[in-house]
Sequence to fold (268 residues):
Amino acid sequence: MTSSPDHSPFSSAFSGEGPRIGVVLSHGFTGSPHGLRAWATAFANAGFAVRMPLLPGHGTTWQDLARTRWQQWHGALDDAFLELDAECDHVFAAGLSMGGALALRIAATRPVAGVVLVNPGLVIDDPRAPLAGLLKLVLKSTPSIGNDILKAGVDEGAYARTPVAAAHELNKMFKDTVRLLPRVTAPVQVYRSAVDHVVSEASMDALRRGLAHAALDVVRLENSYHVATLDNDADRIFEGSVDFIRRVLQEMQAGGHRSGQEVRSEQA
Fold:
């Protein structure tokens, strides 16, 4: 029997040793903290302080999401960052899909130590996207984009419909985030599924072009679809992202700095 999705926010205090590390984490569009709860727990088990808010318009109904603006999503994650920043020595930003774009926005506007992304979205290459501002007046929703998961029997708890008005907001947020990418200087690690039916390679192309001043490490996932945090490669993501944070911290303590021109790594 499958339990109901847990849409509630996640919060844990720092419990490790040494510098106080925090991770602010964001779920994706039409999803909720349910899809990232195991990832957040892995960070907490590593001793990091964690904040993962439920973004406005999510975890309720798609009609609620249709009434939100992208600035509200960013604002919720920014508030969570500031909460961690007040109690931690270093804060990392992480996210899945749209949450990846939001994490990059935090990295472009706040002093983050590093960024960890899973199948980040930055481009909607659906030909209808430019028309969403008009379509929302006559078409309220489209079929769900949720549950792109290779592993059988897994439900991320996303909405059954995708509100067109919110998709219009998402497209605006993506475009504005791409504009901010050159401001990111913290190292970025990306877990990218070889097969993703939601986010195309256009988003990765935009990320590579935009990160002119940040080290980029891309890890390929061969056995997961879009929601990889609930898929077959989940443990690899959890373990690898914790290792990444510890490695970045060690480099910071040693006085090292890696620029985007120095490091571009693609791992199988």
In short: The longest helix spans residues 234-253.
